[in-house]
Predict the structure.
Amino acid sequence: MARQSSTAAPEPSAKPVKVRKVRWYHQLWQAYQMTRKVDPAVTWWLLGAFLGVLALALVIGLLVNQVIYLLVVGLPFATLAAMFVLARRAETAAYRQIEGQPGASLSALRTIRRGWEFPEEPAAVDPRTQDLVFRGIGRAGIVLVGEGPAHRIGRLLDTERKRTARVLPNVPIILVQSGNDEGQVVLRKLPRTVQKLKPTLTKQEVAEISKRLRALGGPRLPVPKGIDPMRARPDRKGMRGR
């Protein structure tokens, strides 16, 4: 009588799970859905941009007696115009979603892709009012961005400026207030305002200052998390159709 082998036959290896690729038109639809919740008029803006470019192509076609040709050529330009409008309205809608939330300034500042470093922890926090100061380092120097009412945040900003100047006395320190009060920078313009600052330092100096700022540290109080505009905004590559 033949002996049965005690070794079990190996099970077939499981097939790897395929990750579903998100197509650009899916991203486009998600961007439209997100924007429409905040900005219901976005549909009319998109139609206006699309039909406006087509109408312009039609007029030019009538003038040169090439109506069909100009309409065919104008169709992709009309689509691009609508996508451009959607990208701008989606960005504005994303900022409107986080406006007024603690940490919104940091979320906006971290959309700056290069040239600036903004740690996630605030440089200063008022535990009573929850006003915040965020610190960034770039070739323009050190920028302190205060988040709070104008009548209150100035004192916290000045305190942090003096504290930073004691450690780095010869480094430019720029104060910026983020908010909707008079003299403050609105949230959607905050990244551009920082990017416009004139460079005065070399890359080596920025690296050395960054090391000293890490040693300076910040408060131990955690900053409440807000919504990151980078996540709320549509993918720019998707918006371009790549």
Remarks:
- Confidence is low (pLDDT under 50) at residues 1-7, 220-242.
